[in-house]
Structures are given as C-alpha cells and as structure tokens.
Design a protein that fits this description.
The protein is of the alpha+beta class and 244 residues long. The chain has 5 helices and 9 strands, in the order ααααβββββββαββ.
C-alpha cells in the first residue's frame, strides 16, 4: 500500500502543529510544579509549628506561624495555624514582658559594715544613662530594713529635714516622706519603708519627683516595679531598724 505523498507545505504545517502540542504540554507542567512545591513547603513548616507547640516554645511557634500565614495565606496549613496563633502570640508577649520586668531587678547578699545585707535594686527607666537613680530595698543584720533612692556620682538630693516627694503609683497621686542621711551620702531615705514596700509589691509603675543638688535640677524618676519578687529578697536575720 502506497502512502499518499504530502506536499512540503502540508509537512511544514504538521511540524508546526506538533511543536505547538509539545510546547503546550511543557508549558502546563511547570505551572503545576510550583503549586505542589509550595504545598509541600507549607506542610513541612506546619509540621514544625506543631512540634513547637508540643514543646511549648511560644516564641519560635509565633515566628513560624506568622511565616506560614504570610507566605501561604490560602493554604490548609495557614488555616490551621490561624486557629491557634493569636492565643500563642498573646501568651508569648505576656511572658516576654514578665521576663523583662523581672530582669530589671537585681538581688544580692553581701557583707556590709560589720554585718550582712540583702538588697533588691532597680534602676530608673526614666531618666536613663548617667541620670538614672537606683531604688534600693535593703535588709541589714544591724540596721534592719530600709528603702531609699541612691544617685550616681557625688551629688545627692535637695531635701531639708523631712521632705514629701510627689509620687504617682499606677496613675494615682500620693506622697512619700523622705529624709537625707546624716552621713552625707547621695541618698534619700524613705521614712515609712514598710508602707512603701507593701505598696511597691502591688504596683506596676511608680513615678517619684525629686530635686537634685546640681543646679536644683528637677527629675521625675520612673520605676517599672511589676517584676519584683519578694522571695528573692532574702532575709538576713533580725535587727533594729536604725535609720542611717
């Protein structure tokens, strides 16, 4: 049987059709591959997110969850993550803030003037740098319990006799009575330390207005005291509460 001969023009048309068919098949294949690759990536990251939840690593789970939602917003992985991510992120932020506040406090027990003292110290958040002032809670085997402000450098506070410091505790105005120590240290001793410490334990933020000896510069000292842990401020034995 003899096959019919095709004219050159007809052969050319067949090659063109074949080429179009092959290029069409090849064009369709890559269009599906990226979608499948993204689905596989989302599934892998979702598995990591689930593992982070199981080990209660809220920080990394929040980061991974946000990445999944951002990069694969229409995926099944993103939908699953969105069911738990808001709660996990909220818990992580609360824990981070709690750790930050706790880290503002320094607790020490050391020898001091023939006895032993235990201190809980926090620096002012405002002002910062060279102008920051320490708030110190102290227990001493001889002097008893004290609470005081302590400035850096040689110059202390302006306070003649007993002075009342304007104070704001969590938005509520009050006043704290203080006095300068007779030893000449750059400090202000809080008169009623027991009441002050009891107030501090319930507070989140305390602002105290003071006047410095350098040009009688007025400062508002801000302390973020919400991370105070009374259990870390160790007792050192009984003593008479003698004011310095």
């Amino acid at each position: 049987m003899n096959l019919p001969r095709l004219r050159p023009a007809a052969l050319a048309a067949l090659f063109v059709l074949a080429g179009c068919s092959q290029s069409g098949d090849q064009a369709g294949a890559p269009a599906q591959a990226p979608a499948q690759a993204q689905a596989d990536e989302a599934a892998t990251k979702l598995d990591t997110y689930r593992q982070l939840l199981r080990i209660h690593n809220d920080e990394m789970a929040t980061s991974m969850g946000k990445e999944i939602v951002s990069r694969y917003p229409d995926s099944a992985a993103a939908k699953e993550v969105q069911q738990t991510l808001p709660e996990i992120e909220k818990r992580w932020k609360e824990t981070s803030e709690k750790n930050r506040l706790q880290g503002l406090w320094l607790y020490q027990v050391s020898p001091m003037a023939g006895g032993t003292q235990s201190t809980a110290t926090i620096y002012s958040s405002q002002p910062s740098g060279n102008d920051r002032v320490r708030l110190v809670l102290r227990r001493h085997t001889e002097w008893g319990q004290n609470a005081f402000l302590y400035a850096s450098g040689e110059h202390g506070f302006v306070c003649k006799g007993n002075c009342t410091l304007k104070t704001v505790v969590d938005g509520k105005d009050t006043g704290i009575k203080a006095f300068a120590p007779s030893t000449g240290e750059p400090a202000l001793m809080i008169r009623d330390d027991k009441a002050f410490i009891a107030m501090l334990q319930k507070a989140k933020k305390i602002s105290i207005d003071v006047t410095m000896q350098d040009g009688e510069k007025k400062l508002t000292l801000v302390y973020e005291v919400g991370g105070f842990d009374p259990d870390k401020w160790q007792p050192v034995g009984k003593g008479n509460a003698k004011k310095k």
